[in-house]
Amino acid sequence: MKQVVQNYKSGELAVLDVPVPGCKPGGVLVRSAFSLISTGTELMKVSEAGMSMLGKARSRPDQVAKVMQSVATNGVPATYRKVMGKLDSYTPLGYSLCGVVEQVGAGIDDVKVGDLVACAGNEHALHAELNWVPKNLYAPVPDGLAPRHAAFGTVGSIAMQGVRQGEPQLGEVALVIGLGLIGQLVVQLLTAAGVRVVGADPDPVRCELAQSLGAVACGDPASAAVEAAVAELTGGHGVDQVFLAAGGGSNQPVELAARLCRDRGRVVDIGKCRLDLPWNAYYEKELDVRFSRSYGPGRYDPSYELEGRDYPIGYVRWTERRNLACFLDLLARGRVDVEPLVSHIADFDDAVETYQRLKDGELKAVAVLFRYPEQKQDAGVSGEAESPAVTVPAVRRSGKAPTPTRSATAPVRLAFVGAGNYATSMLLPHLAQRDGVELSTVVTTTALSAANAQRKFGFAEATTDLDAVLGDKSIDAVFVVTRHSSHAELTRQALLAGKTVFVEKPLALTEDELAGVLAAVEESGNDRLQVGFNRRFAPLLQEARKRFGVRTGPASLRYLVNAGRLQHGSWYLQQGTEGSRFAGEGGHFIDTASWLLEADPVSVYSVATSGNEDLQIVLGYPDGSTATISYVTTGAPGFPKETLDLVADGKVLRLDDFVKASVYGRKKWVSSRLPKARDKGQNAELAAFIKAVRTGGPMPVPLESLVATTAATLAVQAGLAGGAPVTLARAR
């Protein structure tokens, strides 16, 4: 594997091929996805390595003292050999990363292979393709949190421990001196805790960034602006806490802290700045000076970090690992935003060049990430990085398709499994009025909901017994309209029972569930399946597509979905069991795009805003066409939910929320606007499905297309987790 190293004697930086670490008991082997360069700590180390021996000695007087002690104990020759041997060795860099668990050591039961984890430690979270990480130095990444954001876990924990040392209270005012990476995170954490923050940094760009992230005011510490802001916010009393997040040899930060802190205020040192405390200033105010030790309790304790011995929560509430998990949770919930801090993302192979650009000042950055090849490789073998892939399973039919038993003139007898809001508002009203359709049985888990559906829509029977329905040979088709987590299993059972199946989206929430459905198709020979992708059946969109005409060149499609926020308590928010919101609904939009482009996607790239509230998904198609789906929840509720533009061959198709459509080309066509006629295709979709059941003809949408759309929807989450485009590989 490859690892970034530095020779402290010569200053040489290199990416070396080194052996893969073993997976020892009490920890996990993690394959890096993103690792974070600490532009403070690491660059200081890189800069020191480039100094002369005298310069190194001046910068590290603590190490000089150790050398002198060794001379007194062991003599000059032995000490010289020891020091030169240590200096002339490669040392690792890095201490904050996010990656995927590749192997689990004995005694670990809180994560499994394939889980995404954030890792900490300057011996365990290195800039390397693989790292062994002990239990107390990793934390699982919450669902939906992008790996590049989770890579900030360690520096976030450092900032969090510093904030905890300041013991901030609601309504207090704090001063953060130094607005580098740690300082920017401290600003956000204090703001999230209800503290008003003033920032101080000589860099106006960093001051502007801190204000955009929540600081009330920021300015150059040498100017009067910071002092004026503090006076205004505190009535002249001074701030409650000062957080020293600066570095360098100037004593200005501690002097500024004394001047602007209130009587008996708290000064917390997080960075590594000069600390020649002006005695009178600190004594007269009786300032409480505190140090923040890295990520929190447990740091530098081998029994905690290496042996995995946790501290009892009743005695030590916030340990290294708990701080790490807490920061990841804040990221996942959007309480802290690290995306604006990402100045540059470099490929891991370009590590040496990236460090050099940072050192030379060519690359101005708050935070820089290394991006690693996501494609797994054999241990110790280098190779070309490939995009991660999601397999689109092949549809195989056994040839033993069930023999139709219904008469062509008999009514189509339907059973409904589930009778929730969508079924009772968007499907059953159309079916209850349709000639040649008989609503036979409704199955629900609660007796009352079944009885209500029977009374309202005229089902012949209401039951809670699914097996009885699947075993009833007189029932032609089964509608699966339950919660998302049960769709795949109910579909599988109904196919094996020989039923034609209509299942609301999504067909499956995982690749394993999708494979299970297709295994039922292969086992039974029954491929009579329709997924509720109704928008391709919308009359207005069908007319617009017809007016657009035949496409000859690649197309660009943009689909804005103003999804809006869900009400508190909605079961759509139960991501642990019901999948993400996009997993439940996104198939609609992917299917619509694929239908308009007349192909199935071959690649998916997805990114999200902090907290994964808004998604941007780019689908690639075989002919070079692209479809961009913006799935947003933070828009204005009064704006239309769905707007779509298709551009190709000098023509533009525009759809406005299924109320109005237009096509611009040699001739312009605009539909008549019917404000109350928003038709998203449910009725036409059901008509096509009933026709296929009645006649035994082909299903309205080929099964291969339904599978491809489902796989592409699943690939969106895989893309968010991997931070790279996902290839949709067709199984043979």
UniProtKB/TrEMBL annotation:
Spell out the Pfam families in the cross-references.
ADH_zinc_N, GFO_IDH_MocA
Query: What InterPro entries would the database entry show?
Result: ADH-like_C, ER, Gfo/Idh/MocA-like_OxRdtase_N, GroES-like_sf, NAD(P)-bd_dom_sf
Q: Could you confirm whether the keyword Zinc appears in this record?
A: yes
Cite the Enoyl reductase (ER) domain residue spans from the record. Answer: 50-367
Q: Please give the SMART domains that the UniProt record associates with this protein.
A: PKS_ER
Using the record for this protein, list the coiled-coil segments as residue ranges, or answer none: none
Instruction: Give the required cofactors.
Output: Zn(2+)
Q: What UniProt keywords apply to this chain's record, in alphabetical order?
A: Metal-binding, Oxidoreductase, Zinc
Describe the family membership recorded for this protein in Swiss-Prot or TrEMBL: Belongs to the zinc-containing alcohol dehydrogenase family.
> What is the designated name of this protein?
Dehydrogenase/threonine dehydrogenase-like Zn-dependent dehydrogenase
User: Which organism is this entry from?
Assistant: Streptomyces pseudovenezuelae
